[in-house]
């Protein structure tokens, strides 16, 4: 059984849990006590040297970085559950394009916004509002591009859902919960796509905790 | 039809694609995009690259953008020529490769890009760097490189004993931060210094630096 070392509400931990649900892969969440700094202990950094969650232990094979774990599990069980990564060379190219769009044109802006507005206050820190304004302004242009792409096809890599779409869910959901849902809802194609992916049963199963 | 890379020779991620083409012995033609005149922001350009960014490629009519996606596509299409295993095929080796790629995405690039933005991009726009932000970025990058130091003390490259795309992805912005801007982050990190020296000495990269 896959052991998922993480934190139940962590965005990146929930990405891995989501893929496990999509692919019907049983997993065991091993709770890492972030509040006590367990992720910085030598016992943890021996497995994840950056001191971040999550990492997995798949029958002795240790892997970290949630996107890497998601890809590994998707490829290990290609014919089980939802197919998440295409194998045809051009379809795979378009998947990689979409996965890169998620990392550099979405999460690169959304993650620091939610870090400022949601995670900092939880630790008793003040958000840097100037930075949030700057990031949000840059994100708007990106969201216009998403709306253009999703006006021509159902999902980011084409007409089938892939891991690239699902990778938006953890940070995107916190972003909506933080009061920014209008960024998606004001753009018709983006809104359609967001409603579609965020209502997937696998996401609903882990949305409130891995 | 020769592979066309649409971009500007000076753009870091255009150079990344050129580098990988050279590693894989894939001939290419660089089609100039007048970025200084804002050509990449025009509706005509955005038909191909909706985010208004360079590069994109045209491989006999197949259009692809996002430099790292392009590099993966080329490395896989031409797997049997040039530098081997830039994307490993064995499942566990591939997983460790993906881990290394993700390390570059999350633990290197945001800081290297941020430093480049503050020191170079802003300057081009007549703006002053945000010194507090720059200081944070530099400190964060150094902390991440301390972890690279540990990883590279156990293996020659980020994904194991052989070079992969994960290492090459560091070349454009690493060159800006360590060489062009002169941030000394390697002297106290001998394993990182060794790795950096190796990857920057590759003939493909030297050729791209001379002329993309």
From TrEMBL, chain A:
EC number: 2.5.1.18
Alphabetical list of InterPro entries matching this protein: Glutathione-S-Trfase_C-like, Glutathione-S-Trfase_C_sf, Glutathione_S-Trfase, Glutathione_S-Trfase_N, GST_C, GST_Phi_C, Thioredoxin-like_sf
Keywords carried by this UniProt record: Transferase
Any one GO MF annotation of this record: glutathione transferase activity
Any matching Pfam family: GST_N_3
Record field: catalytic activity: RX + glutathione = an S-substituted glutathione + a halide anion + H(+)
SUPFAM superfamilies: GST C-terminal domain-like, Thioredoxin-like
GO BP of this protein: glutathione metabolic process; response to toxic substance
A single cellular component GO annotation: cytoplasm
Residues in GST N-terminal domain copies: 1-81
Location of the GST C-terminal domain: 88-210
Gene3D superfamilies (alphabetical): 1.20.1050.10, Glutaredoxin
UniProt similarity note: Belongs to the GST superfamily. Phi family.
Function: May be involved in the conjugation of reduced glutathione to a wide number of exogenous and endogenous hydrophobic electrophiles and have a detoxification role against certain herbicides.
Identification of the protein by name: glutathione transferase
Organism from which the protein derives: Suillus placidus
Lineage: Eukaryota, Fungi, Dikarya, Basidiomycota, Agaricomycotina
Automatic annotation (TrEMBL), chain B:
Entries under Pfam families matching the protein: GST_C, GST_N_3
Residue ranges occupied by any GST N-terminal domain in the UniProt entry: 1-82
Single GO MF annotation: glutathione binding
Keyword tags: Transferase
InterPro entries: Glutathione-S-Trfase_C-like (IPR010987), Glutathione-S-Trfase_C_sf (IPR036282), Glutathione_S-Trfase (IPR040079), Glutathione_S-Trfase_N (IPR004045), GST_C (IPR004046), Thioredoxin-like_sf (IPR036249)
This enzyme's EC code(s): 2.5.1.18
GST C-terminal domain: residues covered: 90-212
GO cellular component: cytoplasm
Catalytic activity: RX + glutathione = an S-substituted glutathione + a halide anion + H(+)
One annotated GO biological process: glutathione metabolic process
Family: Belongs to the GST superfamily. Phi family.
Protein name: glutathione transferase
Organism: Suillus placidus
Organism taxonomic ancestry: Eukaryota, Fungi, Dikarya, Basidiomycota, Agaricomycotina
């Amino acid at each position: 059984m896959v052991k998922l070392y993480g934190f139940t509400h962590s965005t990146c931990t929930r990405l891995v849990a989501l893929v496990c649900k999509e692919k019907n892969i049983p997993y065991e969440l091993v709770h890492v006590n972030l509040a006590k700094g367990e992720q910085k202990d030598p016992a943890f950094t021996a497995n994840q040297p950056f001191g971040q969650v999550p990492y997995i232990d798949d029958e002795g094979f240790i892997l970290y970085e949630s996107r890497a774990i998601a890809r590994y599990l998707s490829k290990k069980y290609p014919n089980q559950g939802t197919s998440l990564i295409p194998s045809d060379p051009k379809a795979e190219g378009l998947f990689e394009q979409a996965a890169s769009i998620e990392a550099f044109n979405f999460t690169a802006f959304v993650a620091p916004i939610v870090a400022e507005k949601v995670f900092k206050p939880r630790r008793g820190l003040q958000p840097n509002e100037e930075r949030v304004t700057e990031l949000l302004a840059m994100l708007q242009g990106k969201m216009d591009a998403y709306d253009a792409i999703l006006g021509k096809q159902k999902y980011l890599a084409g007409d089938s859902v892939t891991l690239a779409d699902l990778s938006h869910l953890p940070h995107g959901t916190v972003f909506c919960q933080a009061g920014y849902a209008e960024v998606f809802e004001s753009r018709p194609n983006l809104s359609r796509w967001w409603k579609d992916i965020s209502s997937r049963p696998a996401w609903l199963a882990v949305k409130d905790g891995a | 039809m020769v592979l066309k890379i649409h971009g500007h020779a000076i753009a870091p991620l255009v150079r990344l694609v050129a580098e990988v083409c050279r590693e894989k012995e894939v001939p290419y033609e660089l089609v100039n995009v007048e970025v200084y005149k804002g050509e990449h922001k025009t509706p005509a350009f955005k038909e191909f690259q909706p985010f208004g960014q360079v590069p994109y490629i045209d491989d006999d009519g197949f259009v692809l953008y996002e430099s790292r996606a392009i590099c993966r596509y080329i490395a896989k299409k031409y797997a049997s020529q040039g530098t081997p295993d830039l994307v490993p095929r064995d499942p566990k080796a591939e997983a460790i490769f993906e881990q290394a790629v993700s390390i570059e995405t999350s633990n290197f690039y945001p800081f290297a890009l941020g430093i480049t933005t503050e020191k170079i991009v802003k300057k081009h726009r007549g703006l002053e760097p945000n010194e507090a932000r720059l200081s944070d970025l530099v400190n964060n990058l150094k902390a991440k490189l301390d972890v690279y130091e540990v990883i590279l003390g156990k293996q020659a490259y980020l994904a194991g004993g052989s070079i992969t795309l994960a290492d090459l992805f560091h070349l454009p912005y690493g060159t800006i931060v360590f060489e062009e801007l002169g941030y000394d982050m390697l002297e106290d990190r001998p394993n990182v210094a060794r790795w950096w020296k190796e990857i920057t000495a590759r003939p493909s990269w030297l050729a791209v630096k001379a002329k993309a």
